[in-house]
Fibrobacter succinogenes major paralogous domain-containing protein
Amino acid sequence: MRYFTLLYLLCFAVLLGCEDSVTDSGGIVITDEAKAFADSYWKYSDTTRVNLPNFQNQPFCDYLTYEYWAATVFGSDGDPLETFDNYEGTIEEWEALPWSISGGEEKKWYLPPDGFTHMLTPDEKDDNYYEMIGKYHQFAPGWSDYEEDDTTSWMVNLEISPLRAQYIAMIGLED
């Protein structure tokens, strides 16, 4: 009996240790202040947009606009000259399209695979959502101070904008 009690306590202690390491996220802390900051300066979809940018040296107004632009101009092969794989619907249809489903139309099929590796669910703003918008360059165009100088490639500008840098520091992602 004593053996089973010790085994039970050991398993319980291991489980507690695992739970702490999962909720800690490696030192990343998404405070209410950080969430408010992100909600003020990072947009998945700016519903106030009237028209899409013409993409000629013009910044994106939100992350969804960038994602839609990459799918309609470059497609899954990343080549603007090959249009067989480009998305042809409206931005509203794009926004409603699922990221990935089996056997149907999906966003992942239209996007260059080496730049669009993470999916956000804007209706579920959990800690993972807030971590990804700071951590991954893919989401840089959602920051209000993001600037893109090169619209001949779907790759984002890798320079971290001042607002994104401030957010990265707030959540403990900086080195």
In short: The two ends are 49 Å apart (CA to CA). The helical segments are 2-24, 32-41, 63-74, 91-96, 107-110, 127-135, 162-171. Residues 1-24 have pLDDT under 50 and may be disordered.
